[in-house]
Amino acid sequence: MAEYDRWDIRKLLILRTLRERGTVTATAEALLLTPSAVSQQLTNLAKQLGVPLLEAQGRRVRLTDAAELVLRHAAAVFEQLERADAELTAYLHGDVGEVRVGAFSTAVPALVVPAVRVLRTTRPGISVQVREAEAAEAYELLAAGAVDLALSLAAQAPTAADPRFTRVPLLADPLDLALPRDHALAGADAVRLADLAAEPWIFGGSGPWSDITRGACEAAGFSPLQGHSAAGWTAILAMVEAGMGVALVPRMAAVRRDGVVMRPLDADRPHRHVVAAVRRGAEEGAAVARVLATLREVAARLDR
Asked: Cys-Cys with 90: which of 36, 53, 250, 286 at CB 3.0–4.6 Å?
């Protein structure tokens, strides 16, 4: 056997996916394999490398120190292969190809759709396939190669230290205050978050939007009283319109109701930060780079 024959890229990808997903069954689902095929491939890889890769831990398995060492070096290989694939695609096709984008719900109409419209005119050879997906799913799809680019809130994105992905900041989306039209502050000259400290607030019970709302209010000096829990903007604004409470709404959401007044906050304006991510090295591909650049152009117009 040649010195490098034992480094099987496909099997290394299975091992990396097992570390990310935690179980053989979840790994098989992500890679469209059977659990027995996953186990067999990892057994073969351990034989090829000459080191144990997995240890039984109850009904689960855990990666050995040797497996972690292998994956630490494999990360650089995967990154370089992404670069090679991107460069080869650019060489063969130039600004031609399909880019699959996973994006959270409000980013689709505000960022992705305008970018698609621009690309139809400026780069008609690039097609964009859109898949609505919240952050956790989008990054699972990105890691598994099911999408090429993921959009999420910065708070939900992997850290910049994650070796699998390159993050690209897109937008600081301001949060506006949603008030019932007959609210005493709806027509005030200026409104601060602290002016609403005694009001019932409407936001999700958990997750990023709960964290964003609580964080913004706490930065303004108070802990918000959660009057109602909802995750969708239609439900939140319907309750605001009915006078059931107040809410923070991202400007990018662009959901409006006649009975709701949207007030920008000047002195203590909170933001949510939107980022894009690609597999490390893939940003050098012509089509992906062009889609990223167009998303940044659209985001810059929104950020004015």
From this structure: 286
